[in-house]
Amino acid sequence: MAHSATYRSLLLLCIVGSLICASSAQTCRSQNFANKNFQTCVDLPVLNAFLHWTYFPSNGTVDIAYRATPSVAGGWVAWAINPTGTRMLGSQAIVGYLVSGTVNVITTSVNSYTPSMQNGSLSFTVSNLAGESSGNDIILFATLSLPSNSSTLNQVWQSGPMSGTTHSPHSTTGANVQSMRTLDLLSGQSTSTGGGDSKTRRKN
């Protein structure tokens, strides 16, 4: 009987371990969106985040979907382009958070280390803003008119807690200070500006 109980315990541990490994091995290519398709995606190196996009060089726009798990339950997520630098200051951000079970999406300029996080215009045109949730993840959709029709972007992404309806500051250690990359929309190459490696994947 003791051997049987030990065997069952080991079997349960193996099953749980395999499920955890399968979850952690999630990639952007396993993600799909209803009525939306994207040509390329990248597994961002920190904050359990993924970026999908289709670039239109003829008119200098890009359709994006940003998917991430908030760092704490009920928290906010954000993805941004910085037209003037590689870090947070100057970033033009799309922010999503849950309100009564529905994803609310705003745009905000990050002009200080204590930004207002209030809804406002960005330095470039953004359209087709939308958001949805999937499990614990928040997904943000947008069409961006790229500054100077540049196919190379300085991207920054973040996640932090909410305090009621107020965005609380994100952590200033660990992954939250590594979440920045330079992205070439044409080649899909993603270059470190302080974060870890990421993996670009063609969707088709």
UniProtKB/TrEMBL annotation:
It comes from Nymphaea colorata (pocket water lily). Residues 47-160 form the DOMON domain. Residues 163-174 have a biased composition (Low complexity). InterPro entries: AIR12_DOMON, DOMON_domain. It holds the Pfam family DUF568. GO terms for cellular component: membrane. It is found in: Membrane. This is DOMON domain-containing protein. Residues 1-25 form the signal peptide. Residues 156-176, 185-204 are annotated as: Disordered. Keywords: Membrane, Signal, Transport.
